[in-house]
Amino acid sequence: MRKIDPFLLLIMAAVAVASVLPAQGASAEILDTLGILGIALLFFVHGAALPREVVIEGLVQWRLHIFIFAITFVMFPVAVIPFGVLPEALMPADLLLGFLYLAALPSAVTSSIAFTAMAKGNVPAAICSSAASNVFGLLLTPVLLSLLTRTSVEGGFDLTEALGDVVLQLLVPFAAGQMARPWLASVMARHERRIGQLDQGVILLIVYTAFSQSVVDGLWSRLPPASVALTAVLCLVLLTVVLAVTAFIARRVGFSRDDEIAAVFCGSKKSLASGLPLAKVLFAAAPGFGMIVLPIMFYNQIQILVGAVLARRYAQNGTAMAASA
């Protein structure tokens, strides 16, 4: 039986501490500034760590990448839009915005690659597709979210301001990291574990400051327990539908087993590592920030648990096929 992810426990602990001892006043401002600086450092490091050769090498498999992008940025939004018909008592506006934001996010890099490798799928394609999804998603996510909120959320979404913030706070540090890569590549390779710790540290800081702000603004009084339970159920249903449809279409269009695996795991994943920092940029002033990021936090853990089971099943089926050949 798979053990509970320690990072999940840390996220839950951050939410619990923020609920009991939320940061307020000067301490909240200091943590908010540290969060902005941490996000910039995080994207600089990722820019320095991402080999350009990986993206270039994988671009030749354009049919597979277009399919994965369609699942990530088209199928997800289409699947989430019906959530808007739920009564506001169960689906408050900020929670609906959170689901729309989840649908517009790029794929998760680490888990997409790890599960594709575990399932014995097309790892180079998974690396290229998930990396490209994150790079292009920094600009595509705000655009897509703007389109979704025009019809689903009152007040819409300020695309111009959002894109400006994304470029300044995320893309500029990322580009700076890419330019510095020739001098930092060996350092990045030696300290890969510490880069992962930086990811987790920044995410925990964002979770704590986000929920502190939301608790002070009355998050738990505005979000009934039924809505929390509904969020978990909808995330599980959404993941199940995407996995099933992706596998079905991949087989119908004639993808190989290895490509199907890459499509299933890259297409169904949503990035918490990019999602929370990007949310901090896009919704920094939103009083319902904690409610907005709740779906991505639930979805992230569900996708890891379900992905582990599915990857083992793919690997076992592949071993059985090889033995019978």
Radius of gyration, CA atoms, in whole angstroms? 19 Å
* Overall form: globular
SSE series: HHHHHHHHHHHHHH
* Beta fraction: under 5%
Biggest β-sheet strands, sense, barrel: none
CATH architecture: Up-down Bundle
Helix share, percent: over 70%
Question: Termini separation (Å)?
Answer: 30 Å
What is the CATH third-level topology name?
Answer: Na+/H+ antiporter like fold
- Uncertain spans, ≥5 residues at pLDDT below 50? 152-156
Q: Can you count the beta strands?
A: 0
Helix/sheet category:
mainly alpha
Count of the separate structural domains: 1
Overview in brief:
This protein is mainly alpha-helical and 325 residues long.
Secondary-structure map:
Blueprint: H1 6-20, H2 25-49, H3 52-58, H4 62-80, H5 93-104, H6 109-118, H7 123-152, H8 159-190, H9 192-216, H10 219-222, H11 225-252, H12 257-268, H13 272-282, H14 289-324
Helix pairs in contact: 1-9, 2-8, 2-9, 3-7, 4-5, 4-7, 4-11, 4-12, 5-7, 5-14, 6-7, 6-12, 6-14, 7-8, 7-12, 9-13, 11-12, 11-14, 13-14
